[in-house]
Amino acid sequence: MSRGGHREGEAPADGAGPAGTSADRARADEPAAADGVAELAAEMQRVLLVSSRILRSHTASQDVSAPQFSVLAYLHRAGESTPGSLADFEHVSPPVMTRMLGRLEEAGLVRRSAHPGDGRQVLVALTDAGRAAVLAGREERDAWLRSRLGEVTEADREQLRAATALLRRTLIAPRD
């Protein structure tokens, strides 16, 4: 026991003294706060990954896989692109992208043409059928999501709006 009537390292019962300061209590809460942030990050990651997979599954069809749809959607947004740029965007190797583009070309969804500035390169662009596949996939995904949102209460939709705004502010960097 120390002279103050409590064991070494323990705070006095009345909260007085150095061990009982609010700063000490805040430092003691830091590991708990860090654990809470880690738990939230892990749960958010799980929810976002599963949600992303579910949404991607609603854009795929028997003819177009989710990764293929992602390539088509990129081309729809960006216009024509090189296979190397597509591989970088999709985080796949160039040979994997070449095989994927071959399948999409066989399906009539993309066309390849010579690069005007570099004869060693090709450019990939959507065909009309590819554009139609992107629009149909997006419509299917959007319809599925609208149906799910239609099943929740207005109060829950308001919470989802607020959560969506918060996620946007937290996770998506503003464009300059």
Walk me through what this model shows.
The chain has helices spanning 22-57, 66-78, 83-90, 94-106, 128-150, 154-171, and strands at residues 110-114, 122-126. With 176 residues, it is mainly alpha-helical. It has a domain at 51-167: Orthogonal Bundle (Arc Repressor Mutant, subunit A). Strands 1-2 form a two-stranded antiparallel ribbon. Strand 1 (110-114) and strand 2 (122-126) form a beta hairpin. It starts with 21 loop residues before the first helix and ends in a 5-residue tail after the last helix. Mean pLDDT is 85; it is low at 1-17. Residues 37-169 form the HTH marR-type domain. Pfam families: MarR. Residues 1-35 are annotated as: Disordered. Keywords: DNA-binding.
State the CATH class of the domain at 51-167. Mainly Alpha
How many beta strands in the DSSP annotation?
A: 2
The structural class is mainly alpha
Gap between N and C termini: 62 Å
CATH superfamily of the domain at 51-167: Winged helix-like DNA-binding domain superfamily/Winged helix DNA-binding domain
Provide the residue-averaged pLDDT. Answer: 85
CATH topology descriptor of the domain at 51-167: Arc Repressor Mutant, subunit A
SSE run: HHHHEEHH
* β-sheet strand percentage: 5-15%
Number of helices: 6
Helical content, roughly? 55-70%
Low-confidence stretches: 1-17
Please give the largest β-sheet: 2 strands, antiparallel
Radius of gyration from the CA trace? 27 Å
Largest sheet, spatial ordering of strands: 1-2
Give the CATH architecture of the domain at 51-167. Orthogonal Bundle
